[in-house]
């Protein structure tokens, strides 16, 4: 790994795109391992993740270790030139552990203590669990920490198991004492004057366990913050053991996208040598591609540079009640899509399909059918592609991988805030709103970054702020000064409503941002499910609207019907040499697409490649050390032709001769002159 400095972090640049995935040799015998190595070589796999769920095999009885099998697997991999991430297996404590330490099992809010039998059955703050995690991390680090094939540490797996039991209660109180110091300050922050909740002693405070009616929202959000910090402390402890054992290999833990979020990623990212993520499509339809872009842009934001895709499903898209087959071309386009947006890897769950256990129907690089299969041919095809694009790995000297001029401000606090009950409209989620904004920009072909509120915003023309319900004073200042200096800030409904204690800022909505937006809303008008609200200019809103009075702003679109007819719905206020726009309703996706496309055009943010989106082609530029690279992913139905200057690394085609891009196809262009790349429908007869 070589390093390019970016701020405090060192960009993660392995010697090749890491290709492979979770490997569970404990499910087979050595004859299959030999077969695996042969197939890995055939497919050009260079990295596997070992040990994610191997605790019971590695430590069959407390303190008794059996590593002979792992020694052998690592020896075979190393002989074949295949590197490995070594996981600490702490996401799945073995039955002996839970039998011996029943207090270390997690407890649900209703008091049910879970039992082993699946995975993730542990209370993260239980001392016995933490000690057992430290011991096994130490053992693995002492044994394998300086192995030449070790690419890195995969600590735990997808932190995110919440616990509401007695250990959590004690740890939560410790966290609260550190945050508030004095009980009176907590009582004030939580506004415990409401419903007679005043605490007289720290020990009276509980996690938000089942109670008669809705919880205190400040308690709820603090519990989420505590849980994230507690899991981070558990991660840090394992890394400390690894470092004390002398291992210097990079450490990471795989974040999980897209559906749940139990971590505050900005603080976690600072503790990792490289940020990694697991990403599973949330739709089998065309929106899956927008989802890849969303997950990748988020992760690149958290990482502040290159990152690792630790898992995706090679052959399936799993929905609530069925798994759809993922075609080869989609698997390849998705894999290149992650790389285009900063991933240094294409790693999958999993190498070989299991024949037993709970995930026996999960997709794999080697399916049940074995090597004579469409799926394994796809595995080989991707391996070839990744070798051809190796030069893309090294990031630009300033560490920025994207040339985005638009950023979305993201913070987990607001995800959690919108999950607290009893908001005027509990159907609204943070994820949906952020995703919908990102989708509109993606559909317009515009590159997007995701940034932490307060981050360096140099180089952006616009910051979009979807549903940032919880807002710190510094964030308000940050947005104001961005606008003052010529930027465009686009703020959605449910932003700037509350301070960090979930206390509403009074005097009109959106409290903290009223001044900057030049408006004041005295009341919210929530819509019924499915109700549509027309705005002037043909836009349509849903779910939410507000009775807005203009102070300094002007109206861009008014409500065109209903009780708010004639009143402003979308407003614009000048701020210094920039502007602040407010969108007071949840625009339906098509309206949102239209609105953002128009705004981008107005402020001069161009799509990455003019005309590409209309052809169903996604164009992404990844900035590199010597050159920049344009990735073209054809999700559409009609053949296209690409011309200009540059070389497609996948086919070695010189664009000067015209590059045919078939539906489903991909290209990775080493650019000579970005402005001269053009895309158009293929001439009739060309396929
Ligand atoms: C991930 C997990 C893997 C596997 C996979 C299935 O979230 O890390 O172990 O369960 O999901 O999609």
From TrEMBL:
Organism superkingdom: Bacteria
Q: Which Pfam families match?
A: Glyco_hydro_42, Glyco_hydro_42C, Glyco_hydro_42M
GO (cellular component) term, any one: beta-galactosidase complex
The EC number on file is: 3.2.1.23
Question: Care to name a GO molecular-function term for this sequence?
Answer: beta-galactosidase activity
The UniProt entry's GO biological process terms, in alphabetical order, are:
galactose metabolic process
Query: What does the UniProt keyword field contain?
Result: Glycosidase, Hydrolase
Residues in the active site? 158 (proton donor), 311 (nucleophile)
Q: Which residues bind substrate?
A: 119, 157
Ranges where the Glycoside hydrolase family 42 N-terminal domain occurs: 22-389
Every copy of the Beta-galactosidase C-terminal domain together lies at: 616-671
| Enzyme category, top tier | hydrolase
Describe the reaction catalysed, as an equation: Hydrolysis of terminal non-reducing beta-D-galactose residues in beta-D-galactosides
Specify the Beta-galactosidase trimerisation domain's residue ranges.
Answer: 404-603
Similarity comment text for this entry: Belongs to the glycosyl hydrolase 42 family.
Task: Please state what the protein is called.
Answer: Beta-galactosidase
